[in-house]
Amino acid sequence: MKKKTTIIGILAVIVLAAIFIFTSQHKKTTEKIVLGSQGTDTQVWEYIAKSKEAKKMGLKITVKDFTDSASLDRATAEGKLDVNAFQSYAYLVTYNKQNKNSKLVALGTTYIQPMGLYSKKYTKLKDIPSGSTLAIANDAAAESRGLKLLESAGLITLKKHGVNDLVNIKDIKSNPKNFKIKTVLSTSAPNILNDNSVAAVVIDNNTAQEAGLNVFKDSIYHEKIEQNTKANVNVIVTAKKNENNSQYKKLVKLYHKKSIQKYIKKKFPAKVEVKKNIKYLTN
């Protein structure tokens, strides 16, 4: 009987040890991630951070709001932020060209927001008089995107350029109606609509939404979703050294969860989901 009790005791210890080891190996750890964003993207990620899906995936996300785009990328490169989610692929390319010693990488795609041309004076492109002033944002990526939009609208013609090439005012090849192109701070663009000296303003969608503008209803022209606008797809970004971080990559899957997309489509209908491999942007 004593021998049998000993055997049972040993078996019990073995079973408990096995359970402990199994539990330890399969215990779900919570990964803390500090994410930087701005504008309406901050609102989206604050919702995502509190979602059941984030908890299920073992992600504890702290969202920090920034007002300056350059500071967001700088903080990510310096490790003050783990990731950021606010910029287009074109903006990322520009940042990396200017900061070769602190490059960032895209972990995945999120959405595209068609940029629009707005006016309080005209409802049709053809009505904009010759010699009028058109305003676009003054940072390199937004300036390039704004000029490409004006070209797509048929208002100007640019020198030959690739999809991911940045262009500036010097790249205007033809301007038959002699439009004056004025650069302004992107955040002040909605206010420029009230300037009588400006006929129309190109406004990025985050800024437009914050000003209560709907790109599909209020703009007189907006970008079409096509191959030539893929550089404008927004991405989740991290420092180069973290490009293979499996926990950070989970943010991409989390963003595209059905329940998350349902919220985004209802709250921010102009954020059109883009669920593509990163190679889609580089090819």
Automatic annotation (TrEMBL):
Keyword Cell inner membrane: no
Compartment(s): Membrane
GO (cellular component) term, any one: membrane
Alphabetically ordered keywords of this record: Lipoprotein, Membrane, Palmitate, Signal, Transmembrane, Transmembrane helix
UniProt source species: Ligilactobacillus ubinensis
Gene3D superfamilies: Periplasmic binding protein-like II
Transmembrane segments: 6-23
Domain of life of the organism encoding this protein: Bacteria
Major localization class: membrane
Family that this chain belongs to: Belongs to the NlpA lipoprotein family.
Protein name in the entry: ABC transporter substrate-binding protein
Membrane topology: Lipid-anchor
Lipoprotein among keywords: yes
InterPro entries for this protein: Lipoprotein_NlpA (IPR004872)
